[in-house]
Amino acid sequence: MKNPSSTTPPLYDSIGAGYRDTRRPDPRLAALIGRALAGARTVVNVGAGTGSYEPADADVTAVDPSRVMLDQHPGATKVRAAAEHLPFADGRFDAAMAVMTVHHWPDLEGGLRELRRVSRRQVVFTWDPEHRPELWMISDYLPQIRELEHARFTPLSTVAETLGAHTVLPFPIPHDFTDGFQIAHWRRPERFLDPVVRRASSTFAQLPADVVEPAIARLRADLASGAWSRRYGHLLARDSVDYGYRLLIAGGEPPDPGDLA
């Protein structure tokens, strides 16, 4: 591991253990990100975590402020650093990628500016807090998530403008999405009953037990009584739902839409 940083993020140092067991890259999202990174020979993955969605055909440098996360990363080149202070020369990489991480950056504008400084193309996957509909878990069981998420996620329009994105692609979440972040289980409500699944979500990790446990008890009772099915059974016929997740691409020439389909 190169260039260790003294910055230690408590959240991912605490939930990072076992992260790879519940956060398995989804092949459909991986394919979309791969198409957005096509042709890049050198890539920096900022907020890399355990290395999800990194292109197999590129020389990847993984950057993360959490040693716990980097210790689970399989790559050869790992740098412990914050997004706002990337220890690389201008234009060092063909592309920079950041997947579900920009909402954790203390200085979003500074981090996005660094992505643009060190790379010629930028690919960012994030969520728009202004999108509707919202997940039923939030509206019916844990509205506290709404306050937490809106406090840390910046509206997509602001992220896109700051990044200088020329392409914004929606990514509806498939019903069998394999990457276990919060939205993954929109059609599998019983998964929220598993504390291991909840621990893999940074949102649940930040909520106190006296808030989460009564909500989960209500969900368990609604599943047993059929109340959840009466309200949301229509979701069981859906293959995917657009919950506001977007892939942003900036830098270089805008891709041909057909190349990303």
Question: How would you portray this structure in words?
Answer:
This protein is α/β, with parallel strands linked by helices. It is 37% helix and 16% strand. It has 13 helices and 9 strands. The chain has helices at residues 10-15, 19-22, 27-36, 67-71, 108-118, 136-141, 144-152, 156-163, 195-199, 202-206, 209-225, 227-232, 257-260; strands at 42-46, 59-64, 78-80, 95-99, 122-127, 165-170, 173-174, 240-241, 245-250. The protein has a 7-stranded mixed beta sheet with strand order 3-2-1-4-5-9-6, sandwiched between helices. Strands 7-8 form a two-stranded antiparallel ribbon. The two termini are 36 Å apart.
Give the helices and strands as they follow along the chain. Answer: HHHEEHEEHEHHHEEHHHHEEH
How would you characterize the largest beta sheet?
Answer: 7 strands, mixed
Mean pLDDT value: 90
Shape: globular
| Beta-strand content | 15-25%
Q: Helix tally?
A: 13
| Integer-rounded radius of gyration | 18 Å
Taking strands numbered 1, 2, ... along the chain, how are they ordered across the largest sheet?
Answer: 3-2-1-4-5-9-6
Uncertain stretches of 5 or more adjacent residues? 1-10, 12-18
Q: Can you give the helix content as a percent range?
A: 25-40%
Number of extended strands: 9
Distance between the termini: 36 Å
Class inferred from helices and paired strands: alpha/beta
